[in-house]
Amino acid sequence: MRLLVTGGRTGYLGRHVVSAAPGHEVVAVGSVDADLRDPRAVDALVAHHRPDAIVHTAYVQSDWDVTATGAAHVATAAARHGARLVLVSSDVVFSGADGLYTESARPDPISPYGAAKAAAETVALAVCPDVVVARTSLILGDGTSFHERLVHALATGAEGALFDDEQRTPVHVGELAAALVELAGNAYQGVLHVAGAQAMSRFELGRLIALRDGLDPDALRATTRAAAGVAGPVDVRLDSSRASQVLTTRLRGAGEFL
Questions:
Q1: Is 129 among the domain residues?
Q2: Other C-beta atoms within 10 Å of 210: how many?
Q3: CA–CA gap between residue 235 and residue 122 (Å, rounded)
Q4: Whether 86 contacts 3, CB under 8 Å
Q5: What is the pLDDT of residues 106-148, one digit of tens each?
Q6: Residue 206 resides in a domain
Q7: Where are the alpha helices (DSSP H) in 186-240?
Q8: Is 217 a member of any domain?
Q9: Cα 174 to chain center, whole Å?
Q10: 107 in any annotated domain
């Protein structure tokens, strides 16, 4: 299988997807190869490489033109050139009002980033005949993720605290990457939740990271989103039970992989 991975050059998840695809012909691309905001550049990139499948991991959280419009350009090019698309999306397409979310739940984002991801999903599902929208949660596990680096900083004296009221379903980056490669090569179509098997707060997650890495978990402080004045969904637990039936890759909970 010829696999094109957007964000595969320098992106955190994208680099892991490239590493998780031995035996496949992998083309890792980044912003130096094509500006996702330019539909002609994206189309030319896909036309040149002629992939069997595209795993789209690239995004810029604060940039609608990259996260939403860029994903739409990738989806349009995938459809035009007959490539299967695995679009990586996020649990932040949900408001958190319902707590536990299955694939049939209707997106109701309350943040600009969530809205951008929801828009990307909508276009991909509308224009691609062969697409998987893979929603996931907090990504970590190799020691270099944003979440792990933040915990190290906070545990060694940096200012700040971790939310203890926000429930998410963290996933190991290597397992997520393997699942995305598997999805690129199977026949599943539509939305699939590809997250960890255990819900926990960022504070609970931080304590597990600290314990794993020999840091003092009691050095971490807890707060709430309201107290910190940071808007965002509070209880967003992805139900990934369907993924456990569709995939051979096992998605562990953070309590196990940490």
A1: yes
A2: 21
A3: 23
A4: no
A5: 999 999 999 999 999 999 999 999 999 999 999 999 999 999 9
A6: no
A7: 202-212, 225-228
A8: no
A9: 12
A10: yes
